[in-house]
Amino acid sequence: MGAPHPLLTFFMAAADGCFPPVDGRVTVLPPLPRGLECSVAFTGHAVIATAMTSQAVHTRGPDGFGESLSPDFLRHLAGPKGWIGVTDATLTARGTGGPPRLAELTDADDHSRVRYAREMRTNVKVYGDERGLVTLADGLAGRRELSIELHRVQDGSKGHGRSLLTDALSLVPEADPVFAAVSPGNARSLRAFLACGFTPVGSEVLLRPERG
Predict the structure, then answer these.
(1) What InterPro entries does this protein's entry cite (predicted)?
(2) Is-contact 28 50, C-beta < 8 A?
């Protein structure tokens, strides 16, 4: 097992409430495994993991005040035909431990949420019940990452997201940090994560470059 990616240090520090300086600068780190790169924005400071040189990154004038996530800059990182993911809010919480409240599932490999998790993350495990499913995996830079999806998003399922998230936190050892990437436009999901104790620490975009 190799050394952890240096971006993990930033995430773990953020989980403890320690952030990079609010100086408007951009820190450039090596690329992620499996051909992935990313742009992560904290308050007043950006961190970019890429195979591009620092000089090539700074040529387009990114800054720590939002420009590192601008469409033009992300296209510069990804290349003309590279894949650019959505912009997600980066959230973190602490595991509650104790007896697991969800059973592991072995028959959910065809689910779109699970397929995406296996494509982007490693050591993916799937849990769930009649409310929905949960993936728990090693995600961006090796952080422990959690995602959920309800089977039905209707009025009758109100509260299921929060209860499923609460139970999912029992799958993480007590006080260990866990992260989630949530689209800000998915307001219902974002409200559920915030209600269950998740705290916003930044925002992020994953990329799979194709630079020729």
Answers:
(1) Acyl_CoA_acyltransferase
(2) yes
